Amino acid sequence: MxxxxxxxxxxxxxxxxxxxxxxxxxxxxxxxxxxxxxxxxYGNNILxxxxxxxxxxxxxxxxxxxxxxxxxxxxxxxxxxxxxxxxIIGNNxxxxxxxxxxxxxxxxxxxxxxxxxxxxTSKGPVIIGDETWLGFNCxxxxxxxxxxxxxxxxxxxxxxxxxDYCVVGGNPGRILKKYxxxxxxxxxxxxxxxx
Length: 195
Description:
- Helices cover 8% and strands 33% of the residues.
- It is mainly beta.
- It has a 6-stranded parallel sheet with strand order 2-5-8-11-16-19, with no helix packed on it. Strands 10-15-18-20-21-22 form a 6-stranded mixed sheet, with no helix packed on it. The protein has a 5-stranded parallel sheet with strand order 3-6-9-14-17, with no helix packed on it.
- A hairpin with a 4-residue loop joins β21 (174-180) and β22 (185-188).
């Protein structure tokens, strides 16, 4: 009973702190950090597990950053989202712990200037399709679109686009399986064969 009351109070506290309407029904774990809240659009029924961090900052000249979070999104523990361009997270997306998404990179080309003082760059927006599951400790890099109902395996670093209904693993990530809409089965992916 006491735990339920404390959870409700924590939900009210974070909803008020980050100006998220109560009607959105968001649920918050402990130590949630959201920077740049005015650049975030929240869906309904979002769960922020302990130590989730969203950082949305205008770091690229002329770009107004945007983070869209769909409905029924579950952020795992220690998730990190870094946005300076645009990140779109679809509906019913499930994050395991320690997932990192970034649409930005540090500039490094000028060897006469410390990397920390060089301009932030981006290869483009990041889009995570509906119903996708992002496994433990995976990383999604800038300019990547992941399709609908995909599985990104634990430890995978995704640097290229992923079509709908794929299982991706490795470093760098590659497609391991793809759902065949004709046979209605998950099949081993052969990149040399037309799918």
